[in-house]
Amino acid sequence: MPLSKTEEQLMQYLWKLEKAFMKDLIQSYPDPKPATTTIATLLKRMTNKEFISYKLYGKSREYFPLVNKKDYFSKHVNNLIKSFFDNSASQFASFFTEETNLTETELKELRDIINAQIKRKES
Asked: Do residues 13 and 29 share a domain?
């Protein structure tokens, strides 16, 4: 089951902190901060979905991610390519480079990344 947008936002903070108590997570939010009950509900749902877990210290819970940020993002990108680009990475790359207003420098950096990946695959 995927994360909702609000769960995903909270997960971003947890990935950044690596492990955190609820008060640390609430502090990560800009003002106005969400209610403690809201964060508690999100944490419970995310625990049930097995995206996070926690370690008990008395009555306090220290939360930590069970899902790696890179793996989560990779799955989303692959689903996006599958759903919107007929499972074609080339179509996705074409759309991405044409529609995102990349600078010439950014396009050259992408080319270098692709060339390096090709060399790794050839080895």
From this structure: yes
Quote the tokens at residue 34. Answer: 């969400």
Q: Token pair of 101, please?
A: 């207003």
Give the CATH number for residue 14. Answer: 1.10.10.10
C-alpha 54, offset from chain centre:
19
For the stretch 35-87, pLDDT in tens is: 999 999 999 999 999 999 999 999 999 999 999 999 999 988 888 899 989 99
Residue-wise pLDDT tens digits, 105-115: 999 999 999 99
3-state helix, strand, coil in the chain (%, to 5): 65, 10, 25
Q: Are residues 58 and 10 in the same domain?
A: yes
Give the number of domains in the chain. 2
Residue 74, CA distances (Å) to 15, 64, 68 in order: 15, 20, 10
Contact 13, 28 (CB under 8 A): yes
pTM of this structure: 0.76
Helix (H, G, I), strand (E, B) or coil at 100: coil
